[in-house]
Amino acid sequence: MTLRKNTLGVLAATLVLSLAGAASAANILVNGDFETGDLTGWEVAGVSPNSNVTADGTDNGPSEPGMYNAYMENFAPALGLLLKQVTPVGSAGEGDVYYSFDLKLDQADVGGVLFAEIFAEQEGVGIIGGSGLMGPFWPWNDWVQYSDYFVAPAGTDFLTIQFVATTGAADGSSCVAHVDNVVLDQGSVATEGSSWSGLKALY
Fold it and tell me: Taking all residues of the chain, what is their mean pLDDT, rounded to a whole number?
């Protein structure tokens, strides 16, 4: 009886570790940490001779280990340089959407500002909810992690997250920023809760 109890205990501990790992990997974004060394999974708009987004291997946000971040460099007047990712249809649903990201601002002159926004979307309909416009952010010359949640309404099929480095119309406007360790998570809390109830059933 003791041997059976010990065996179940080992199995339970293994199951807890496995499920805890699964819970921590609930990010529905692709390449949210940019550790592919490029912008795989992301879309960029607003590229010009004076604006671009690249993978920067000289710095990393504090939330996760690594080497890379997305470097947004905008010196073009009156332009929104956009970095965004749209998750697959069916990847999200109604309920809490937890998000976090690391930001660092190198430069923002003459009306330059940095914003973020998350949309809850329905296939064939478009935007039906979201976080609202977040920012402007001012994490001057040092990394800051931002995290919170919003409630996606009924009908949500997928999510879009975007970061915008925006400049003003005046000459000399700029917005230069780093983005890293972007997470959208709708599943880890529920998964962990159901794991414990499953373990209790073993005893």
Answer: 85
